[in-house]
Amino acid sequence: MEAKDSKRKVILTGDRPTGKLHLGHYVGSLQRRVELQNSGKFDEINILVADDQALTDNWDHPDKIRDNIIEVALDYLSIGIDPDKTSICIQSGIPALHALTFYYMNLVTTQRLSRNPTVKNEMTLRGYSDSEGINDNTAGLPAGFFTYPVSQAADISAFRATTVPAGEDQEPMIEQTREICRKFNTTYHCDVLVEPEILLPENESQRRLPGIDGKAKMSKSLGNCIYLSDDSKSVKQKVMSMYTDPEHINISDPGHVEGNMVFTYLDAFCREDQFATYLPEYQNLDEMKEHYRKGGLGDVKCKKFLIRVMEELLSPIRAERAKWEKNIPDVYDILLTGTEHARQTTNETLNAVRHAMRIDYFDDRASMIRDWENWIAH
Ligand code: TRP
């Protein structure tokens, strides 16, 4: 690989297309991606729609994945991912990723795979092991699911990504990728693969948004999400049903803002200037919280403010989505162009990998024939 490649700053991130994206994704990663995209600090930005990875635990529901690819693509485009700056590609359309996975499989032990904390958690969630993850029943695991960290290492290294913006839950994946890259480079005496760095969300409160029910995480399976594509009526209903403070019964009662989802969401989403516009009796969130703590501020009033705040965020996203929804052929072409671009980049990595492994038999006819003739002669 050329020297200039070593200085290039390349981002790869990805999502499994198993459902529409929600506010938790927005706070945890999507917002950041748009900032990184517009920062101009990166030479290349790729978003991978990881359908193959999603199939490792949805192999019997391929249509679910197929339908959600377009949902996720629409979500990206409507929040401000700009296809002229960020390439969006579909994993299954990039054959080099599969080939790399197969070679990397040789560099990883099954023991190392069963120690991967993310895989362990997911095994627990799917009932494959006990909750402590001690008696791992890997025997009953589909091999594709068990080895998906290797495929993720292929994703990241194939793009020669230097930077992977992702949540803490992806840390073990990046660590395993780094190990695989290192092992490859030492085994084959080369520096073909680039060890990536994870880029975690900047502040603690942005890492995880709880669900509207107050449960630790917003997640589709818990049914506690506000989706980026929700219409204003559902957003209103969801905010009105939010978990607040069960001890705050009468308006005059003192209330808690900690663990109160209305305030958690205001912390994450409201701006100071929105008080002047929608709730001028307070200068800022601190004053509003103070009043709530003392007593005398009712939940409905707080929720109505939050609805305004949510609408200000979501209505432009909704409008963008509506435009793209009328233009599916363009979305198709964006995904095709991104995938073709990714094929090219990743094929270059695969060629370099094959060369380093000395399995590039058909790349240079004359030298291969010479090598084999010498071998036979000696
Ligand atoms: N594992 C990621 C998730 O579950 C998706 C993903 C696949 C990914 N390949 C990736 C993330 C490469 C970052 C880089 O959300």
* Multimeric state: single chain
Number of strands: 5
Helix content: 40-55%
Shape: elongated
Main β-sheet, spatial strand arrangement: 1-2-3
Beta-strand content: 5-15%
Task: Write up this protein.
The chain has 378 residues and is mainly alpha-helical. It contains 17 helices and five strands. It has helices spanning 3-7, 23-39, 51-55, 62-79, 95-104, 110-114, 117-125, 143-146, 148-158, 171-187, 232-240, 261-269, 273-278, 285-294, 299-325, 328-356, 365-377; strands at 10-15, 44-49, 87-90, 163-165, 197-199. Strands 1-2-3 form a three-stranded parallel sheet. The chain has a two-stranded parallel sheet with strand order 4-5. α4 packs across α15, α5 (95-104) packs across α9 (148-158) and α5 packs parallel to α16 (328-356). The protein is elongated and about 95 Å long. Bound molecules: tryptophan. Residues 12-16, 48, 50, 53, 152, 155-156, 164, 166, 170 line the site of tryptophan.
Question: Quick recap of the structure?
Answer:
The mean pLDDT is 93. The chain has helices at 3-7, 23-39, 51-55, 62-79, 95-104, 110-114, 117-125, 143-146, 148-158, 171-187, 232-240, 261-269, 273-278, 285-294, 299-325, 328-356, 365-377; strands at 10-15, 44-49, 87-90, 163-165, 197-199.
List the helices and strands and how they pair.
Blueprint: H1 3-7, E1 10-15, H2 23-39, E2 44-49, H3 51-55, H4 62-79, E3 87-90, H5 95-104, H6 110-114, H7 117-125, H8 143-146, H9 148-158, E4 163-165, H10 171-187, E5 197-199, H11 232-240, H12 261-269, H13 273-278, H14 285-294, H15 299-325, H16 328-356, H17 365-377
Helix pairs in contact: 4-15, 5-9, 5-16, 9-10, 11-15, 12-15
Bound molecules: tryptophan.
Tryptophan (TRP) is lined by residues 12-16, 48, 50, 53, 152, 155-156, 164, 166, 170.
